[in-house]
Amino acid sequence: MQLIVSQKDRLELGSYSEQPNGECMVGKDVFKHAAPDLDLSVIVPCYNVERYVAQCLDSLLCQQTQYAFEVIAVNDGATDGTGRILDEYASRFDTLHVINRENGGLAAARNTGIREARGRYLTFVDSDDYVSDGFIESAMATAIRENADVVATGQISFDESREYKKLMPHDDHDRSVLTGTAWGKMFKRELLARVVFPEGYWFEDTPLRHLIYPRIDRYASVCDCSYMYRHNLQGINLSSKGKPKALDTVYITDLVFRHVEKIAPQGYLDGSVFRAVACNQFYLNQCRIEGLPKACRKLVFRIQSDFYHTHLKSNGPSTPVNSPLYVTAMSLRSFTLAKISVKAAFLNRAVKVLGRLFLVVKKHNS
Q1: Of the candidates 329, 335, 242, 306, which has an alpha carbon nearest to the alpha carbon of residue 8?
Q2: Given this model, what pLDDT does residue 116 score?
Q3: Tell me: the pLDDT tens digits for 157-198?
Q4: pTM of the complete model
């Protein structure tokens, strides 16, 4: 199963930005240690985070828990004081293991940590984020009790001045917190044995939604907000607009679709869940490339519409999607409707931002 079927289309997309060479699946088990001897491995990729990494490490290394865990900090060729801070912490904490490598990007750093992991479960923490007290204890207790494949925690997004968004599970099995990001979750080791983060790509978390989540049998959530996510204005989703490399979102979708039929449960590709997941991915792709030339955006829309008509249009009862209008646009092959759906997304986001600013000003003036 491929998204980009035509070689002509692939060459035309490549004229805007070439597809990276990274893969999302490997032929054999990636783990260096054949059998786990710890409960949890916490993987922390680090690159030029001297301002934040101490807070991140303090929040992890001082966790009070009955579970045996390790923190694997991967120094991804940092050029500031990050390496010095990591070495200083490693001299004080036996549970911290520092791996130094040449700069290869977030995906490469995560993959390095995965290979060295000794835990039954793996979790990822970005080095400019931190976790609250009890993060490991509560999530691991839930994982063991439920024999869960994945456990997700609630999250709080914040910037330098304030908290502004909470994502709290409604119950112990609320899948709304099963977002497309690697952080804020604990994964059973076996799920990551052959799936890797694609190196050289932006949007490297994409395989989670397509290659990990369909294989989950048992899922649980922790009903508190224990992962603290630092809102980064330089993050890919915010800084990629208008850059040709934003086409990675299309390339990485093509990459995971080439593998999904190999590992997805029987019947998944013919069901409404895959239809919804794919349609949501296509809508996200269209939003991410909004700043690129019209001819490029139109080409991507046509490629995605072709896939929709070939593989998705007749996939049973409808599962709710993020943008019914975009699905209608693909069904009618109407690029005009697609543009309207994308504009609606940006307008909705702008309204939310203005709402938050209004609350800040109101609070300041009260």
Answers
A1: 306
A2: 98
A3: 888 766 667 777 777 776 766 788 999 999 999 999 999 999
A4: 0.90
pLDDT, one tens digit per residue, over 22-54 is 999 998 999 999 999 999 999 999 999 999 999
Domains and CATH numbers, the chain: 7-20+243-354 (no CATH), 38-232 (3.90.550.10)
Compute how many other C-beta atoms are within 10 angstroms of the C-beta atom of residue 11: 9
**pLDDT tens per residue, range 84-137:** 999 999 999 999 999 999 999 999 999 999 999 999 999 999 999 999 999 999
Beta bridge partners of 156: 166, 228
Rounded Cα–Cα distance for residues 206 and 25 (Å): 12
- The residue to which tokens 């005009």 are assigned: 336
Can you tell me which residue has the tokens 């786990």? 36
